[in-house]
Amino acid sequence: MPVYVYQCKNCGHILEEHQSFTDEPLKTCPNCGQDQLRKKFGNVGVVFKGSGFYSNDKG
Ligand SMILES: [Zn+2]
C-alpha cells in the first residue's frame, strides 16, 4: 500500500498516511483542524521543513 505525504497549507504540519489508490484523500489537518491538507506527490521520504522550502540534492 502506498504511503502518501500530506502537508497542511495552514500550519505546515506534515503527516504520512497509508492509503490505497481508491481511498479518499485526507483534507482535515489533525494539527490545526483546518481543511488545508494537500497531498504531496513525488519522492516519498523527502522532508520539507519550513513553508514552501524545497531541499535540492546538491553534491
Ligand atoms: Zn494544519
UniProtKB/TrEMBL annotation:
**Where does the Putative regulatory protein FmdB zinc ribbon domain start and stop, copy by copy?**
1-42
Q: Which Gene3D superfamilies match?
A: RNA polymerase ii, chain L
Signal peptide feature range:
none
**Taxonomic lineage:** Bacteria, Bacillati, Actinomycetota, Actinomycetes, Micrococcales
Q: What is this protein called?
A: Putative regulatory protein FmdB zinc ribbon domain-containing protein
Q: Which organism is it from?
A: Rothia aerolata
Query: Which Pfam families does the entry link to?
Result: Zn_ribbon_8 (PF09723)
Q: Which NCBIfam families match?
A: CxxC_CxxC_SSSS
